[in-house]
Amino acid sequence: MQHRRQFMKGAAALTAGCLGLNHFANPLFAAPSSSPFAEDLLNIRPLEGYSPNMGVLVAMLNYNRSTIIRSIKNLKVEELDFLIDPKANTIGALVLHLGAVDKFYQINSFEGRQQFNDAEKKEWDAAMRLGDKGRAEIKGHDAQWYIDKITAVRQKTLNELKKRDDQWLFAVDPLWSNAKDGKINTYWKWFHVCEHESNHRGQITWLKGRLPGAKGGGD
What we know:
The chain has nine helices and no strands. It is mostly helical and about 220 residues long. It starts with a helix and ends in an 11-residue tail after the last helix.
């Protein structure tokens, strides 16, 4: 019972924090319905404007992205650039990495390409690779710069998903499917984008707790 009460208390705090965000007025998060999207953040369901299963997927993508923006929007440049050790990634680099992965799955699932073209590589290679390249190149930007970058990519994703249906979502990719992993469909690809974002949100939370002057303990 104690664990359940703690869980419910945490969930209530998360809900209150999410629903108080002004950035949900952004069209990126606006579901075409009569109620403001902010009121429906924790209501995972088919969204109008999308096929049924696509809408559920988009609701999850939207929620995950909202938590990323909430987590970084008040950080200073030096906090976004903070490197806890020589092999780590900064918070800013992790956020831009989310945009790079979103971009890759765009070109893969919407265009059938398996790699970035030269222009895309120039823009996204450091964020995709992270490591030494990311540490060297991704720095000096404020939180809004990162938010704008990942928002622009996600907006294109949402626009493209509106053009497609559940049949497309459940279609198996023969190039990605193999004897070891079995069948891999488009739904899994975008589910992976969603879980990938959750994974890095955990890293961002951990790094925030270790910023100079941070109290820690929130992870």
